Each structure stands twice: as structure tokens, then as C-alpha cells.
Amino acid sequence: MTALNSEDSPVYIRLRQHIAEAVLRGEFAAGDQLPSVRALAAEHGANPLTVAKAYQRFQDDGYVEVRRGVGMFVLPGAAEKLRMTERAHFIANIWPKVRAQIDLLGLDPSELLEDMAL
Label partner for 33 (CA 20 to 30 A): which of 2, 63, 67, 115? Predict the structure, then answer.
């Protein structure tokens, strides 16, 4: 995810990807509290409003819930739902570009898979 993300994408998109990767890696499981807006902003040197926008996207997409006065928590099933969404995005938007680059460079997909196994 991050490796394929453009460095010139908006900060809130990069923050969203960072959080998504953490959820997919299991760093935040269902019921876990996400870092506060201020804590995440300080960790990444971002504006708190930018972090709030990234978190709002997660809430809008149904991955987290806000408990007023307490914080933001990962919802049950969020990792599975996020994984399906990210897979669909990869297949529709990223893979065609990767495949075109493989073809352009004359790479053999089976050799690439063998190299990845090493």
C-alpha cells in the first residue's frame, strides 16, 4: 500500500493509508482505540485538522466509531472489510499499471514470482 502510494498524494490520504496498514497488520484490532488526533498529528508532524479528516474518512467508511469524550475505536469486521476494499482498489487501479510496466520491461511474471519466493 504505502510503497505504491505517491509521495505527492495529499497528507490526509497518506495518513489514511498509514492507519489502514496498521489495521491490516493487526496493530489495531476490533475494539482497539486509535491514537488521538493530537497524538497522531504530533507523531507525523501533521496538522490536527488533517488527521481529523483522515479519521473522518474511516468513520464514513464504517471502519471506526467515535465514542464522544473517549476516542475512536476500530469496529468489528473492519480489517476484513478494509482488506476487501483495498484488494478491489489494487486490482482495479494499481495492478493494471504494474502489469503494463512488466510488459514494457519484458519481464517474465513466473521469474518475478520465483524471485519473490527467495
Answer: 2
